[in-house]
Amino acid sequence: MKKNTKSLVLTFIGCILAGYAVSCILLPNKIVNGGVSGLSTVLYYAFGFPAALSNAVLNVVLLLFGFRVLGGKFVLKTVYGAGIFSIFIQLCSYLPPLTGNPILAVIFGGILYGFGIGLALTSGATTGGTDIAGRLIQYKFPYLPIGKLLLLCDGCVIVISLLVFRQIDLCLYGVITVFVSTFSVDYFIRKLNISKLAFVITDKGGEISQKLISTSPRGVTAVDVVGAYTGDNKKMLVCALKENEITAFQDKIIKIDPDAFIIFSESQQIVGNGFFVYR
């Protein structure tokens, strides 16, 4: 229950960020960022359709495909995410544009939109649109980064915008925005997956192990080692940690053995008990 609540909250926040980026930064500057929201921008300027309405309608069509392949649970989360996204596109449309400078719009709109999409994706949902298409492709090819898949889908939307607007500058702005938002999505998800590996060489391996196991959710692996210079027998403790746990971890060890030798190494991804891989 707690996990589901956290997922819903993160999706909600992500949709707010993405909705604000579209309505207050990208749309006023006619910048097509790809995806259904980009198509909504094209439809808005070409035919006057409200961006929030066209975003919702296009998502309904894609959800029909998503239900057959990804299942009802994913679709329910996507309905929630796409619904909140469309609502905030409409609500934020009543706010004044953040900037009229297209360069600033490309940079800050792309970053904000990418972080919003990243939050939704890491919660197991999407804001709809080409996020669904990206998930469908990733379902068949799970080794492909979601950000790159979104880039492929968004590129098609940029081509459509060029055909409609016939302004190469707007097309190029859109290309840059897609790259910025794609980088933001991948960077955000990669940062969530990064963890730390700690290697502790100590004479008090048993005492430190008990302390760590009893005061944290992380496990410890003990390995017998020999110092090449001294020839002394020691213990090397190996522990996987989240970055925000490092300080407390180090303090516990130093308190027991001030002479302990601690090495921290960055891990791009850890699979196993207590660690979740974000895609």
Automatic annotation (TrEMBL):
Keywords, in A-Z order: Cell membrane, Membrane, Transmembrane, Transmembrane helix
This protein's GO CC annotations: plasma membrane
Superkingdom of the source species: Bacteria
Membrane topology: Multi-pass membrane protein
Pfam families: DUF2179 (PF10035), YitT_membrane (PF02588)
Compartments where located: Cell membrane
Transmembrane segments: 45-67, 74-96, 102-122, 143-164, 170-189
Predominant location category: membrane
The keyword NAD belongs to this UniProt entry's keyword annotation: no
Boundaries of every DUF2179 domain copy: 218-272
Protein name: YitT family protein
